[in-house]
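Help needed: design a sequence for this.
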């Protein structure tokens, strides 16, 4: 068994569209490599800084998170039924696909700045969290289908006829 600590740079597109790890930022890896009959079992944790935006109000998000992962790397000559099984390449192993899968699966699909984030007004785009408490943010909407009836119920205008 061997325990290692490494810091690597994040590759491009390490995350989702709305949240991910910025390219070139540090990823701290805590690894445990164990020799088993089939190959090398790698267990570890990847700690990194995530950045993105809230899907409701579009405010920037930034948080630190640790993602656990585990993968068995088979010896090159080991017979395996799975074509996608990870394999050792000499004395080296490629952790990027394993860490990428763990990170992407661990990310929130729709990240929010806070659980009760009200988002943006769909009519005018005002950030609803900035509306003073006790006031209601509303827009009067006229339905064009009722416009003709509205004209019938409108009070008559005072028009004086000259004789």
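Sure. Designed sequence:
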């Amino acid at each position: 068994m061997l325990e290692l600590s490494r810091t690597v740079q994040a590759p491009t597109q390490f995350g989702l569209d709305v949240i991910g790890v910025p390219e070139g930022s540090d990823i701290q890896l805590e690894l445990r490599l164990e020799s088993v009959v089939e190959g090398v079992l790698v267990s570890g944790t990847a700690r990194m800084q995530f950045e993105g935006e809230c899907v409701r109000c579009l405010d920037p998000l930034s948080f630190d998170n640790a993602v656990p992962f585990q993968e068995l790397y088979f010896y090159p000559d080991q017979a395996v039924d799975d074509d996608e099984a990870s394999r050792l390449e000499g004395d080296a192993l490629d952790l990027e696909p394993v860490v990428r899968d763990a990170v992407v699966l661990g990310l929130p699909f729709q990240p929010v700045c806070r659980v009760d984030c009200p988002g943006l007004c769909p009519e005018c785009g005002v950030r609803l969290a900035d509306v003073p408490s006790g006031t209601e943010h509303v827009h009067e909407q006229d339905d064009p289908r009722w416009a003709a009836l509205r004209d019938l119920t409108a009070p008559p205008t005072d028009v004086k006829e000259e004789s």
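The first strand starts at residue 2 and ends at 9.
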